[in-house]
Structures are given as C-alpha cells and as structure tokens.
Write a structure and sequence with these properties.
The chain has about 300 residues and is an alpha/beta fold. It contains 10 helices and 9 strands. Strands 2-3-1-4-5-6 form a 6-stranded mixed sheet, sandwiched between helices. Strands 7-8-9 form a 3-stranded mixed sheet. Helix 6 runs antiparallel to helix 9.
C-alpha cells in the first residue's frame, strides 16, 4: 500500500522550517541562514521511499505584511494550507512566544487541515520549559499531536517521520521518484547568489535585494556562463553591494560560484550586475519578473 500527499511546513520566520525539510531530504534545498525571513517562495521538497512520497511545502515565515512582496509571501503560506493533507506548525521554543506567534495561531485555527505541532530547538531549552510551552499551545491551538525535536541535531526526528505517514492518503507518487523539487535549476542558481548576499551583508541590504538570472545557456572555454542581476532599492545599497573597488560584489561572486558549481557539477563563470530598482518590493512587474507571482486560488 503506497501513500502520497502534501505536507505544508509553516511557522514564524526563523522557526527552523527550511532546516526541517532539508533534514528529510538529506540536502540543502532551501536557503538556511541566521537571517530571518530567508525563504521568499513556496518551495516543494519531494521525499520518496519504497512505501510513501511526501511532498513538503516549505513556506515563507508568516508575519503581518509590510509591502506587496510580504503580502505575496503570506499568500504562498495560506495557499499551502489549502493544498495540504497535513500542516506541520514549526515553533522555535528557544525564544519567548509573542504576538507574532498568536498571529500564526489565529490563522491556523481557521483551517480544517489536521495540524501537528513541531516544537523545534529542544536542544536549546531546559526540559521544564517544554511542559510550560506545551500547556500554552493546548490552550490556544487546535492540533492533533505535539512533537518536540531538534531539526539541527535530529533529536526525536524519527517520531515526526512516523507521525506524518499516518496522515498521508493512499495513492500513487505525485512526482517522479527521482525528483527532489518542483523548482527549475535556474531558481536554485538565483537562490545561491541571494544566499551569498544574505551571509556577506547586513542591516537592510539582505531584505532590500533580489536576484534575477538572465541567462545560463552559453558556454565559453569549458565553463557555463551565468549572467545575473542583483536588484536593490537605493544608490546607497548599490554602493554597499559593490563594495570598495568592487570587493563586496567580488566576494559575493566567489562564494556563490563555488556553491553553484557544486549544484551543477560543472565549472561556472558567474557574471553579476547590480541595478537600482526603487520600490521593487511594491511593484507588481518587478515581483512577477523575479518569480514572486501571486498564487492562483
């Protein structure tokens, strides 16, 4: 009896959603950094065994939107609720629960999809605190089961895998058994450039920037030529991305190129440009060209 289904991974920014999916898949499919709100798209990660196929939907962190981009990011999360057979609500229990968590809880309590509460980062708290947190969610959230674990260390991870299978319907594989994601290669190339920006810059730069891969179809001297544009909103941000005598853009290119070569399994010549695009996060045409398109309901 083969089982297959969709499992939405939702929660606040930096709760560990992407780390959790990557642990299932055995590879880093989503960008994982210390920066909050790293995931911007809804990314499907496909986990297939002999008896089941789980299609995880890694979603952006749920928060009150501040611009058109964050509205569409939240839209990705809410659409995943409707597509899912199960919702994994991931909570970072190493930090204090606040109004932002209640905002997510209110959204989830409106759903009819079963919810498994994933209490993440148990390796960072005292056991006494776990009981207190569990009592809080028993009072505020409608869920089927709570599973404390650590997505980083893998502690109690098998219990979650076993629980997920219980909610999958019987059915044939939804994707080819060799597929790892529904996203094309060009998407992951852009994400690796964005990851380098996230890790090498600070303050407002990471969340004011976006990456568009223009072309990666050409070869020269045995290398794949990849051309990409980094968009920022202000001239001051452009100067930071470029750096003194081009030092920052060079470092971004070096770091991204190494990871892209690992992804593609071939040598790469990465060419980066920086362009000012004022208010791109509130401009539909820019959001569409960057792949942040509104979900169809």
């Amino acid at each position: 009896m083969f089982k297959s289904g969709f499992v939405a991974i939702v929660g606040r920014p930096n709760a560990g959603k992407s780390t959790l999916m990557d642990r299932f898949l055995g590879s880093e499919l989503s960008i994982v950094t210390s920066q909050p709100q790293t995931t911007r798209n809804s990314i499907k990660g496909i986990y297939t065994t002999e008896n089941e196929q789980v299609v995880f939907i890694d979603t952006p962190g749920i928060h009150k939107p501040k611009d058109l981009l964050s509205e569409q990011m939240d839209d990705y999360s809410y659409q995943s609720f409707k597509d899912a057979d199960l919702i994994l609500y991931v909570v970072d229990i190493s930090v204090e629960l606040g109004k932002g968590e209640q905002y997510v809880i209110d959204k989830l309590n409106d759903q009819k999809v079963p919810i498994v509460l994933v209490l993440n980062k148990i390796d960072l708290i005292h056991p006494d605190k776990l009981l207190e947190i569990t009592d809080y969610f028993k009072e505020h959230l409608k869920y089927e089961k709570a599973i404390p674990l650590s997505a980083v260390t893998g502690q109690n991870f098998p219990a979650l895998k076993e629980e997920i299978v219980n909610y999958l319907p019987e059915g044939m594989p939804l994707f080819d058994v060799d597929d790892l994601s529904d996203k094309p290669t060009i998407f992951f190339v852009a994400e690796l450039v964005r990851k380098a920006i996230l890790e090498l810059t600070s303050e407002e730069i990471p969340h004011s920037s976006a990456v568009e891969v223009l072309d990666m179809s050409q070869f020269e001297n045995g290398k794949r030529i990849i051309e990409a544009t980094i968009y920022v909103e202000r001239d001051s941000q452009k100067k930071i991305i470029i750096g003194s005598k081009g030092s920052m853009i060079k470092n971004i290119g070096i770091q991204a190129r190494k990871q892209i070569e690992e992804l593609l399994g071939e040598r790469v010549n990465l060419k980066l440009w920086v362009k000012k695009a004022p208010k791109w996060r509130n401009t539909v045409s820019y959001l569409n060209s960057l792949g942040y398109k509104k979900e169809k309901h």
